[in-house]
């Protein structure tokens, strides 16, 4: 974690200094982020001055988008590597792998593999299109994602939880529902953007804005303006629920002096703020992202967005929010 933290600070400093050479109309098509050149050095360093900083790898003569690379590679892959390490730790400590840590690791690996397989889809996300790359994203990609998102596996590696068939079925159902909503809604949006005449989306209703963009008013995107966030959040529940009423303490062993034992006595629920943190944090993150996206779309589409919101009334959860 310390190494990743140092790298994130160094990277943020590098991408802060480098854009000072960017000139309007440059042939490399480099662009400063809208909110990244406020004149406040600390703020710009944190939020990111350049929209999509790129570097050319020597010898390979290949250009790499730093933000897109960091978004998917170090953080997401590091997340799964840590999950696997925690699973190995559980096996080393107890001699078996529990169903709880197995499904958490499989679910999170599925999420990461889905992101990597559908990599082109991130090019339309708000992080890529609007935000500069500074400490906020560097820290998030290199430190926050791998070390915070793997907290459930870390907990289960020390305190094994056996769920049993019934509870596993419930969690699998929740994960399946979340993934179905998440993947189907995103696939529908990407298919419509790529080719509105595709048979799978040609029947969908939409309104055409003054800018020429089309906003879907039926299908998945007719149920809520950010329906994919609901699927994302439901999957977050399936990562946390396998830890049950989390809580344990490590005490000296009476039978074997010099060793320690893990016990849950008097600790039920004590670790819930940690193991269920992802679920709460992700809800806040998604709502904040949704609000930013709403603001951006309102500026971009004006009255067309107001008309769209009257048709698609719900933001994330149909009938609730």
UniProtKB/TrEMBL annotation:
Transmembrane annotation, as ranges: 94-112, 132-149, 161-182, 267-287
GO BP: ergosterol biosynthetic process
Position of the signal peptide: 1-17
Gene3D superfamilies attached to this UniProt entry: 1.20.120.1630
GO cellular component: endoplasmic reticulum membrane
Pfam families referenced in this protein's UniProt entry, alphabetically: ERG4_ERG24
Protein name: Delta(14)-sterol reductase
Similarity field: Belongs to the ERG4/ERG24 family.
Species assigned in the record: Hortaea werneckii
Membrane topology: Multi-pass membrane protein
InterPro entries: ERG24_DHCR-like, Sterol_reductase_CS
A molecular function (GO) term: Delta14-sterol reductase activity
Keyword annotations from UniProtKB, A to Z: Lipid biosynthesis, Lipid metabolism, Membrane, NADP, Oxidoreductase, Signal, Steroid biosynthesis, Steroid metabolism, Sterol biosynthesis, Sterol metabolism, Transmembrane, Transmembrane helix
Localisation: Membrane
